[in-house]
Give the backbone structure.
Amino acid sequence: MERRNVLKLMGGGAALAALAACAQPGNDIVDIASGDPNFSTLVAALGAAGLVETLQGPGPFTVFAPTNAAFDKLPAGTVESLLQPENVDQLRSILTYHVVPGNITSDQIIGTRQRVATVQGGTVHVDGTGKVGVRVNNANVTQADIIASNGVIHVIDKVLLP
């Protein structure tokens, strides 16, 4: 399958182009997420969990990045509760479950099913065999292959829970 068709399946189009514009050479994962208002909840959570410096490090990392809309799908009060200092360990566990060591790009996913180890210690199921795109556990990848200086971001429509 041609790469442009893969990106269309994974939600390419204008939204990917807009995010790719944020992915200037030298921009790390946090820079890219911080530059997009759709990731303000994720960026706030990374700060509260003390993970900003880690995701600004050399990596490489693959991040399955939930949007604000994905966080909004959680039960009412969940995000606010997770951002409280007494829940930092739970928040860190959830966020690191979205991070995989190394670079995993769409060309490595399409046509396969994989169990991938996360930084949190668990595994996520990545399914690239569907006709409508790629799924990570029960989340859809809506935009793929946003390349950062220290890894790659794939945008997802749900928060992954370990």
Observations:
- The two ends are 32 Å apart (CA to CA).
- The chain has one domain: 3-156.
